[in-house]
Amino acid sequence: MQRLSITTMVLALGLAVMPLSIQAASDGGAKNTASSSLEKSVGKEKSAGKASAKETEKGLAEEEKVSLNNASAEELAKALNGVGIKKGQTIVEYRSEMGPFTKIEQLQEVPGIGPSLFQRNQNRLKL
């Protein structure tokens, strides 16, 4: 008799849990649909981001670029990403000691201006 009640309990528990497993399986399909729509929207945002990056480059080309040979330390700090007053002063001091820049790439010779900082700001510079 006791064995029958344990079997009955296991059967009842199995029947009680079964709707949860069915619901979990159907929710998994909904999650896949949601994730695929999320992936589509992320893809649209990436392509929109590429377009806005191109527009930004065009905007910088149209805007006034900072002159390496004429700008003050404050102007350099304001116009260049990752350049503060101290690096701006270093650029001005280098320019006064070595003479005017003849190529934009010479900025990398200034102490504290590495290749990554130069690449970040290359499109913002003119002689």
TrEMBL record:
Composition-biased stretches (Basic and acidic residues): 41-66
Record bears the keyword Thylakoid: no
GO biological process, one term: protein secretion by the type II secretion system
GO cellular component term of the entry, any: type II protein secretion system complex
Disordered as annotated region, ranges: 26-67
Pfam families: HHH_3 (PF12836)
Signal peptide residue numbers: 1-24
Presence of keyword Transcription: no
UniProt keyword terms in alphabetical order: Signal
Family annotation (PANTHER family): ENDONUCLEASE/EXONUCLEASE/PHOSPHATASE FAMILY DOMAIN-CONTAINING PROTEIN 1 (PTHR21180), ENDONUCLEASE_EXONUCLEASE_PHOSPHATASE FAMILY DOMAIN-CONTAINING PROTEIN 1 (PTHR21180:SF32)
Protein name (Swiss-Prot/TrEMBL): Competence protein ComEA
Lineage: Bacteria, Pseudomonadati, Pseudomonadota, Gammaproteobacteria, Enterobacterales
